[in-house]
Amino acid sequence: MTSVQANPIFKSMELRLSEDQQALIREGIESGRLRTAEDAFEEAMLLWEERERRRLEILAAVDAAEASLARGEGRRLTSREELAGLAEDVRSRGKERLATENSPY
Predict the structure, then answer these.
(1) Cβ of 34: how many Cβ atoms within 10 Å?
(2) How far does CA 74 lie from the centroid of its chain?
């Protein structure tokens, strides 16, 4: 069990780590990658926070796309040919954009 000082709302928090998690933390400390178990917890929280930010960005993008479709701003693709045409259009625009961004002028 690991005790972690947290937000004053929690005052303290106890976490139960599996044996594998404990071994991973021990290995991190023994290798010098981590100084303490708290370092492992901080790193884990940073990764989780980043994942949650990305998840919220994806959900916002899905909401925006659904709203766009509801306004009739989307494209209906009903055949493989239309899908291939869209893919080629995206590829062409991407190449043009890269050429512009990489241009020295």
Answers:
(1) 19
(2) 26
Q: Is 31 helix (H, G, I), strand (E, B) or coil?
A: coil
Handedness of CA 49, 52, 54, 57 (dihedral sign): negative
Q: Over the stretch 11-23, which tens digit does the pLDDT of each residue have?
A: 788 889 999 999 9
CA distance 13 to 3: 6
- State the Cα–Cα distance between residues 33 and 61, nearest whole angstrom: 36
Which residues lie across from 13 on neighbouring strands?
Answer: 4
Q: Can you tell me whether residue 35 is helix, strand or coil?
A: coil
| pTM of the complete model | 0.58
CA atoms of 5 and 40, how far apart (whole Å): 14
* Residue pair 49/55 in contact by the 8 Å Cβ criterion: no
